[in-house]
Design brief:
Elements lengths: L2 E9 L8 E10 L4 E5 L6 H9 L7 E9 L2 E2 L5 H7 L4 E4 L3 H4 L6 H10 L6 H14 L5 H6 L7 H13 L5 E5 L7 H18 L2 E6 L2 H7 L2 E6 L2 E7 H6 L4 H9 L15 E14 L7 E14 L3 E5 L6 H8 L7 E6 L2 E2 L5 H8 L2 E4 L3 H4 L6 H11 L4 H14 L16 H13 L5 E5 L7 H18 L2 E6 L2 H7 L2 E6 L2 E7 H6 L4 H8 L8
Parallel strand pairs: 3-8, 3-9, 6-7, 7-8, 13-18, 13-19, 16-17, 17-18
Antiparallel strand pairs: 1-2, 1-4, 4-5, 9-10, 11-12, 11-14, 14-15, 19-20
Helix pairs in contact: 4-5, 5-7, 7-8, 15-16, 15-17, 16-17, 17-18
């Protein structure tokens, strides 16, 4: 075995929700093997990985057990020896490349710095090696990438740069901590394929952290299932997926969205929202580059009926969110009409638009950044109704009612946003949107960053609320599996244009567009889970 964890225990600081982040974990990683650790947020997956790297945050300490790497206990190595081992023997791909990359250093400088930290070579040679690594990652225009900064790259490009940095010194163990969580399904499929190909080519071991059993099915040789700091089940991936022994494992597998549509199309009704020929352009460029107009949304038309969920599906940059913001008038469209109950809100002045705003509400992708961290939940929920003249007591009573509707205790009104989990914050965001009794709800990637079990709960909740309140819902997602769970119809977008639309069952059963077929084929674990 290359890596053997034996009875590893990692303690959390006093006052945490439990004493141990990792409790008596034993795990083996063989040479030339990919092992997945799967579990929900808080299960101890990332803490286990950071313990191997010796990168535990302040206040989180190992209190027992051993981590043997090629026979050497990493927990007993001096700090200097452990620093020398990082990058050279053990390397890590972090979950958020934007946070892990230095925003003020060019990509070439960051990759070459990793190389020069362990090798006494000239900067020019290190830059040349950095370029070769980026080329091996399948990146184009390497000369331009070396001079670019992280914010100028797409999510997939930044993740490939992180992989290049991790592989720059040919480590024997690569740790990948949720490297595809926030990526589009097509980009995710490319990154998984790349990691698997590099692992086979270099004969190295990989420890892959994820919460998605679809990803496990695509990449793993063996899998360990963690919950509350303990390993509940482990074994070959075919055995764990085919005959899971633990109820928690079965629950995780059952929570993975399937690519079969469960909802039949609704009967035709009078449209509540009718969008025709909508276009929105942005001017890109700066002081040192030529300015050009980019069509984020290009002549898009759609119909949304009361009580119906219409899914807008596509990769990042396809125009989904821009379209939603034009419909709700957070952005002013350049062309086209947005007819809401017969009134064209695309051309309305602010005074005429204000009474209609309460009838169209939005649930944002990141509930933490959309909730004011300095205000209590009760104040956040009642702010909208009170702005429209409702009395404080009545608004607070309805806030309690909305919290019950989304499955939260009304006592949550006295707490702050940071005191809730991601799934709970998303429920609060939904409750806030429902406070004004809207007719239309726009959900912009509301489950993309959630664990599969929490994701399933939020999807069920959204569909339940849609039925109870007879809402028309515009649901934006890059994941076809998610669209299949809640959408009666789907509209597939690419480069600002609609490439295909129709009832979800028909689009999934017989897609007419090559792009739609590519999105379906890129679903993690497609046909294997």
């Amino acid at each position: 075995m290359l890596v053997s964890l034996r009875d590893l225990r990692v303690a959390l600081p006093p006052g945490a929700d439990r004493p141990l982040a990792v409790s008596d974990v034993s795990l083996d990683i063989a040479r030339n093997e990919i092992v997945c650790i799967v579990g929900e947020s808080g299960s101890g997956k990332s803490v286990t990985a950071h313990a191997i790297m010796g990168l535990l945050p302040r206040g989180v300490v190992t209190t027992g057990g051993s981590i043997l790497f090629d026979g050497v206990d990493l927990l007993k190595e001096p700090p200097a020896a452990l620093r020398a081992r990082r990058g050279r023997d053990i390397a890590m791909i972090f979950q958020d490349p934007m946070a892990a990359l230095n925003p003020v250093v060019a990509i070439g400088g960051q990759v070459s710095e990793q190389i020069r930290a362990h090798r006494a070579i000239p900067e020019s040679l290190a830059l040349r090696q950095a370029g070769d690594l980026l080329s091996q990652m399948g990146l184009k225009d390497v000369a331009g990438l070396l001079k670019a900064y992280p914010h100028q790259l797409s999510g997939g490009q930044r993740q490939r740069v992180m992989i290049a940095m991790a592989l720059s010194l040919s480590p024997r163990l690569l740790i990948a901590d949720e490297p595809t969580t926030a990526l589009d399904v097509t980009t995710q499929a490319q990154i998984l394929k790349l990691i698997k190909a590099i692992q086979a080519e270099r004969q190295m071991s990989v420890l892959f952290i994820t919460h998605d059993f679809g990803v496990v099915a695509d990449i793993a040789d063996r899998v360990a299932v963690m919950r509350h700091g303990r390993v509940l089940e482990s074994g070959p991936v075919a055995q764990v997926l085919g005959a899971p022994a633990h109820p928690y494992t079965r629950a995780l597998i059952a929570a993975v969205p399937r690519d079969a549509c469960a909802l039949p199309p609704l009967p035709q009704a009078a449209p509540l929202v009718r969008v025709t020929g909508l276009s929105k352009r942005f001017r890109r460029g700066g002081l040192f580059s030529r300015r050009a107009d980019v069509a984020a949304v290009d002549r898009v038309s759609l119909i949304l009926n009361r009580g119906e969920t219409l899914g807008i599906v596509g990769e990042s940059g396809s125009g989904k969110s821009t379209l939603a913001r034009c419909v709700i008038r957070l952005l002013d469209p350049d062309e086209g009409a947005v007819l809401f109950d017969g009134a064209d809100i695309a051309r309305m002045k602010a005074r005429g638009l204000r009474p209609l705003r309460r009838r169209i509400q939005m649930v944002f992708q990141d509930p933490f950044s959309s909730l004011n961290p300095r205000r209590r939940i009760g104040d956040i929920l009642t702010a909208g109704p009170r702005a429209y003249g409702e009395e404080a007591g009545a608004a607070r009573a309805r806030a309690a009612e909305m919290l019950r509707l989304v499955g939260l205790n009304p006592q949550a009104m006295d707490r702050f946003a940071h005191e809730f989990s991601g799934g709970q914050r998303q429920r609060i965001g939904l409750a806030r949107a429902l406070m004004l009794k809207p007719d239309v709800l726009i959900a912009d990637e509301p489950v993309s960053a959630l664990d599969v079990t929490v994701q399933a709960q939020v999807l069920d909740l959204l569909d339940d609320v849609r039925r109870r309140m007879n809402l028309a819902m515009l649901f934006i997602t890059h994941d076809m599996r998610v669209a299949a769970q809640v959408c009666h119809r789907v509209m597939v977008m690419r480069h600002g244009r609609v490439v295909e639309s129709g009832p979800t069952r028909e689009v999934f059963a017989a897609p007419s567009s090559d792009y739609t077929r590519a999105l379906l084929a890129a679903i993690p674990g497609c046909g294997r889970i």
